[in-house]
Design brief:
Blueprint: E1 4-11, E2 16-25, E3 28-38, H1 45-63, E4 67-71, H2 79-98, E5 103-106, H3 108-116, H4 123-133, H5 143-158, H6 171-177
Parallel strand pairs: 1-4, 4-5
Antiparallel strand pairs: 1-2, 2-3
Length: about 180
């Protein structure tokens, strides 16, 4: 029997931080948790960072993930927002490192592309695909939660999804299907 692998996905934020936890056994993916950390009730930014760290430790102790997948901050027009977002991501990473978890970072575009096939997909399209893939029947509280889940699923798709066993009739059919591999 294949070993279980648990992936914690994080969508960092300073007002709302989304998270999702999946379990992978063989080629079967199951959602274990989906939620958000609501940080707007804290006026003090350092206090928000403390809460992120403590809640990350709590999630790690509860689900015992093997890996952390986190969305990389993207550069926006507001430098202060970018700085705060980077701090939130750094605190989440520090919490994972304090528990010796390997960290994997993906751009928002890479996560969307991995889930939907389109790097410019909307949050709603990502959420709908995740609901289909993981057979989620209840609508998530916010799109931040599904963004965290998407980070976990993206990591599974990028690193360790078992080969589906594509068969080719010969080199010509292989090269036709994989033009990027031609020298």
């Amino acid at each position: 029997m294949a070993a279980e692998r648990i992936i914690l996905g994080i969508d960092p934020g300073t007002t709302v931080m989304g998270y999702g936890v999946i379990s992978v056994t063989g080629n079967k993916m199951t959602m274990l948790a989906l939620g958000v950390l609501k940080l707007s009730k804290y006026d003090d930014h350092p206090l928000r960072l403390k809460f992120i760290f403590e809640r990350m430790i709590s999630l790690i102790e509860q689900y015992h993930p093997d890996e952390l997948s986190i969305e990389a901050p993207f550069f926006g027009k507001n430098v202060q927002s970018m700085l705060k977002l980077g701090r939130a991501q750094g605190v989440a990473i520090a919490a994972a490192l304090s528990r010796s978890l390997p960290i994997f970072e993906y751009s928002p575009r890479k996560i969307k592309q991995s889930i939907t096939g389109k790097g410019a997909a909307s949050k709603e399209q990502v959420a709908a695909m995740l609901m289909h893939l993981l057979r989620i029947t209840e609508n998530p509280e916010t799109m931040d939660a599904t963004d965290g889940l998407a980070a976990a699923v993206c990591h599974y798709f990028q690193n360790g999804k078992p080969e589906t066993g594509k068969k080719f009739s010969g080199w010509k059919s292989f090269l036709t299907a994989n033009p990027e591999r031609q020298g």
